[in-house]
């Protein structure tokens, strides 16, 4: 394995995992599914989809081996964000959902939070000044999300797989 043996790095054909998100997702995917931790793979795929949508998480999730700067907008490491998604990914409703659909639910959830609490998400403010998109805030709000989804379902509000306003059945 060379000098990276014992460091936790995952060998890849073109280098080491963490060098790029796409390669990392594929390699980690094959390894964690064997260990019963496919929620990690799904979480990485959800992050890729979420970042592609723009919105409040665009440019806020720090990739592995990406150095943060004072001037950037990065608020949470990728590993922390994936861990925060576990309560959502463990829901039976989300077990078979495509990452793009889960990302749409997350996007709508966070857009709603931004409507209620606009100051931390205002482009003129530095997101690093607010805990809501850092580890603690993200973990807390993602831990609540499964209950929010269940309350909506109990009220006959259908989860829409777009960023449109949820509709009643």
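-> sequence recovered:
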């Amino acid at each position: 394995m060379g000098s990276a043996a014992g460091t936790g790095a995952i060998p890849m054909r073109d280098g080491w995992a963490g060098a790029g998100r796409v390669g990392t997702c594929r390699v980690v995917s094959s390894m964690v599914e064997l260990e019963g931790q496919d929620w990690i793979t799904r979480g990485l795929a959800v992050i890729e989809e979420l970042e592609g949508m723009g919105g409040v998480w665009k440019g806020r999730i720090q990739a592995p081996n990406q150095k943060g700067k004072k001037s950037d907008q990065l608020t949470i490491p990728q590993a922390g964000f994936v861990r925060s998604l576990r309560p959502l990914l463990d829901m039976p409703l989300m077990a078979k959902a495509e990452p793009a659909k889960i990302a749409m639910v997350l996007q709508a959830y966070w857009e709603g939070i931004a409507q209620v609490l606009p100051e931390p998400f205002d482009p003129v403010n530095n997101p690093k000044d607010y805990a809501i998109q850092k580890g603690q805030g993200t973990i807390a709000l993602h831990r609540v999300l499964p209950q929010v989804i269940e309350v909506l379902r109990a009220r006959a509000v259908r989860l829409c797989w777009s960023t449109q306003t949820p509709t009643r059945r």
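The radius of gyration is 17 Å.
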